[in-house]
Write a structure and sequence with these properties.
This protein is an alpha/beta fold. Among the domains are: about 70 residues, 2-Layer Sandwich (Gyrase A, domain 2); about 130 residues, Orthogonal Bundle (Isoleucyl-tRNA Synthetase, Domain 1); about 80 residues, no CATH class. Helices cover about 45% and strands about 15% of the residues.
Length: about 550
Amino acid sequence: MKKRVAQIFKEHLGENPPINKPKQKEFGHYAVPIFKYAKENKQNPVEFAKNLCEKVKCDEFESVEAVGGFVNIKLSDKFLNDFANRVIKEKKDFGKGSGKEKILLEYVSANPTGPLHIGHARGAIFGDSLARIGRHIGYDITTEYYVNDAGRQINLLGLSVYLGAREILGLDVVWPDEYYRGEYIKDLANEAIEEFGEDYFKNPVEILEKEGKKEAKFEDEKLSLWAKDKMLEEIKKDLEALNIVPFDNWVSERSLYKYWDEVRSILEKNGALYEKDGKIWLKSSEYKDEKDRVVVREDGRPTYLAGDIIYHWDKFKREYDRYINIWGADHHGYIARVKAAIKFLGFDPDKLEILLSQMVKLLKGGEPYKMSKRAGNFILVRDVVEDVGADALRFVFLTKKADTHLEFDVDDLNKKDSSNPSYYVNYAHARICSIFDNAKKSYDDMLEIEFKDLNEDEKDLLFLALQLPYVLEDAFSNREPHRLTNFLIDLASEFHSFYNKNKVLGSEKEDIRLKILAVVGIILNLGLSLLGIEAKERM
């Protein structure tokens, strides 16, 4: 709608002007500021606005009025009817776009050393919803999961399973200071015994004392990689339970290390590295990092940062217009060093956006949510999904900006009243479905109806519903899916208020009001689907 309004004004102003929404409803649907154009034409803004009102009068506008240096517009019934028909015809295709930026979006990327916990879930839901919204409005988005399957944590996973298997078999076990705990390790250990046989675990693990700590000497790569693959299967199940769209790419850190010599050569050529204390350092402090960082240890092994450098080299070689990483908030200090590396590699670090996802605090009945026995010391995604369902969990995660702290009580998500926003929005959709069932009519039947003499309540509800395309653009460009969630809450509230105040079935304006509700129902359904939530038809 905004585009059409802008086109009408462009015919007289020479360009598309900004289209604002007045703060007060009585001023109309849109307001066009004309100060700039009055100045260019050396006219008084009030007089310029009055003259412009006469020029832009058309069938699309019920009224145009000059107020100060603004032209306020009320849209006509005909104009609103045209857009209502578009919604009813296009349904879930309404607001679709094409031909926008090519984006590589990486998110979750949790270490494959255990099931997903609730902290991972927030970033997963954030990334998935961002991808859904972006794709709908025309961005070419590739989603990617970076699998940290190299290094110490994978070795530690294999060690934990090995020792767990020995314990199950009644063999002597000495536990080091660091290992993975939880029922899932026992489950893996039992599977490992089936897979490899009991004899595989007969040799004890050598435990070394190092700087006052007990460390295990364990280098069973075969078992470690097997355990990693098993955990990846579990992670994929957790993502499926959250209704996360399958990732386009799964990139193995381990597979990228073969390029380290090539990447290191580029860094050396560009003057990015130097040697000190037997280590190789990246000059990241030259690009806003607080200090330089080690990329090669004294023993010649690349660090975790080196792996990230190779990964971003691989990313940028694939030539996307933009790269978006969603990281946990604890990775905030990592941003500068990665961007420094990208600059040293010869790429534009401004093409990389890093979005942070804060942790979540869960309560149940006002008390801290119990840690999972299966995970040891985490709240597992699957436990919460079993408790409240994926839809309610997704909705509440998307009610706030991802980089702000979130605290909620899962018992509230099972409430069937207006205090539960997920229920409130779904109830609006189900209520509309029920109204159409009782009317024995479909949304498509409404295409034959023409709007006539819409009152303010009808126009307000319809106009709000038709704002979805702009909400989607706003939500994606600001990387804030919660703007869509808040819009749906507002739309549901406006609908409930309208329905409680205005009779629909059996009224003189039954068909007109049904058509408005058809638009609202389609928009609620589409909006929820872009949040990864299935709209309820019965409640």
